[in-house]
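Progress against Task 2.4 (sequence-to-structure conversion) is shown through the following example record, which the project officer requested during the mid-term review.
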Amino acid sequence: MTVSPAPDRDLAALVDDVLRGAEHPGEWRAGLDRPFWDRLAELGLTTLLSRQGAGWAETALVVAGAAARGVVLPVAEHDVLAGWLVSGTDAEEDLDGLLVPVVVDGTGRARAVPWAPQADNLVVLTTGEEPRVFVVPAAEVLVSESVDLAGRPCADIEVPLGQLSGTGESTGGRVREVPAPPGAHTALLRRRRLVRCVQITAAMGGALDLAIQYARERVQFGRPLTGFQAVQHLLADAAAEHALASAATAAALARADREVAADPMTLGRHITVASSVVARSLGVVSRDTHQVLGAMGTTVEHPLQAVLRPALAWRAELGDVVDLERSLAEEVIAHDGTVWDWITGSASRE
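Structure tokens generated for the chain above:
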């Protein structure tokens, strides 16, 4: 099941062809495959949203295709997040290298930034009433490196905010300040949540496919596992949750392409709904697919781990589910019309 509304068939075929065979079961912790990344860049698949003029539906084909196969790539970080922060500025040329976004605290620090060790530049967004955006050489601000649950190389960073003037004088002219987009923090959070919903939903689909394939092939007591009612219930439960997450994510994607400029409030609502649904559905799909595959599925070499571990790491970026649902409840209470009007968006919006 696709999470991309009305995807371009030719692009979908290209993405499928490029990603086919890119899976490396048991090697998902190896980090970025630079030659493969360079190939994607040559095809324009790493900058569809930020540079190629494509929409969310097209970009979703790439990030979802990789997530469903357990191929860990920084397309979301590079294109959807960092690329958006520098789009239309003189730093857009840095998209030729690997850009990674990072939001630093008031001291210029951030912990466990995914892909930072392999980035060429970091796009740093500061906090405060007047956020600023700097493009900083990654190697100059890395403090310590590690690997996260998804197998992504990470690093703690420390940016000397007090020395940054926007002229680059403190680092030999290699640090640049670019204009911060309007509502940078809110917009970046929404974009992050939306692309993570796309990736997590695709990963759930990949996990479900693995479980179904195994249940069909594995013979126990003279018949395939799919012949046992308990296994059928597990697969049906996982499939239902995946379908629910796909519907919520597809609705948010469609809204992002259609109404992001005209109606950002409604877009934020759709993304919050998708984030809540996806976060809850992932727990069910992870549990059920692991139960179908049994002990074999828990080994780090199994493809299920390559698919689900990144999804579990991405889920943390969606925020606390209770907080998401509380914000939706507060919006419903504050709404002047009926609950149905709020759900369908048919009433006037603030």
